[in-house]
Design brief:
The structure is a homodimer of 203-residue chains.
Chain A (H helix, E strand, L loop, with lengths): L7 H21 L5 H8 L3 H7 L3 H26 L4 H18 L1 H8 L9 H20 L10 H14 L6 H13 L11 H7 L2
Helix pairs in contact in A: 1-2, 1-4, 4-5, 4-7, 5-6, 5-7, 5-8, 5-9, 8-9
Chain lengths: 203, 203
């Protein structure tokens, strides 16, 4: 059986809901009430649920393009790290901090889906695998300190999540400080990365 | 007219409320509903308001000891910075991050009182003045980079505020990275500190 194309008004509703969700999520985060989205889209909540049976369905529609870009950008960084490990890693760290400052809701989707959630499961596996490659190439190329850990990318995002609510532009300065720390040539051993993070971010 | 000492049961109530508030604030933050505090203390909300007419009165009672310690610790660091600027600054940064991880509610009180709030106004002026001395001595002693800014202490706290909800022990690693960045000998210029912070943290 072939899925019937949506009737014109249904397609229009779908588009209006996605646009409204972008705005509402940008202001209230990825857990904003779906009632707010329906109201902003000028449709009933029943219509919203008919088009998007779960919040995850809506999140995937809203963030599909960004997620594709994120995966591509991570794969590119991993590739660049073969020849220019420091440029690849440092540009990537600033990219993820800036992307988060510009769209905190997207970063919520990216880093904090519930355990076992299928939300962007394929894409998340994909960019995690690339970022693990990026980090191991950066380490192999001695671009970062030996005890740099893949979870330090997560540490940077979580630290930045505190900042973006207070001063949106502060990610630049945090990024500059962290990058100094990440490469820090002659420094002593770091305190270990949180155990729970080491597990959750290994690909 | 001399203030009459509290009757025994009133003093007992006061003590129970402060103890209960410590627990409730530790779990729910400094903005926790005062009804929760009253319930935990086993007193009516009217009794709570009779003893502590405003939330600030209660916060000052709960955090008086910690605030005194914080002021003292900051003054000591400023003093030590005369002779050992790097030790003074680096120990102090780790102290504030650890204190925050141990008691997020206290740090809320410390860094985020409403504009014009009189909450711990004297103490906040006091420790700010000491921390400005600490930073300027650390800079004069070339212990930190020339473009280190007093507001970077605030940056560290705000970044840490994201971490402590996720992995309580991660402050150690964040602190180590930031300290590497703060001293970073030969690095390029930093992106500027957020303007609003420069104003709000100058003593």
């Amino acid at each position: 059986m072939t899925a019937r194309p949506l009737r014109a008004d249904a397609a229009q509703n779908r588009c209006a809901i996605v646009q409204a969700a972008k705005q509402v999520f940008a202001i209230k985060g990825a857990n904003a009430p779906l009632e707010d989205v329906a109201r902003e889209a000028n449709v009933g909540i029943a219509t919203l649920y008919r088009r998007f049976p779960t919040r995850d369905d809506l999140l995937e529609a809203v963030f599909a393009d960004k997620m594709a870009l994120y995966c591509q950008r991570t794969a590119d960084a991993a590739e660049l790290a073969r020849t220019r490990p420091w440029d690849a890693l440092s540009d990537y760290v600033l990219f993820i901090l800036e992307a988060q400052a510009e769209d905190p809701a997207f970063t919520e989707v990216l880093i904090a889906p519930l355990k076992g959630s299928k939300l962007f499961a394929t894409e998340r596996r994909d960019y995690l695998r690339s970022s693990v490659k990026l980090v191991s190439r950066a380490k192999a190329g001695r671009a970062v300190r030996a005890d740099f850990d893949h979870s330090d990318l997560y540490l940077a995002l979580v630290a930045n999540s505190g900042l973006i609510r207070t001063a949106p532009e502060a990610w630049r300065r945090l990024g500059a400080y962290l990058l100094e720390g990440f490469k820090a040539p002659g420094a002593g051993a770091l305190p270990p990365a949180p155990k729970s993070w080491r597990r959750s971010t290994s690909a």
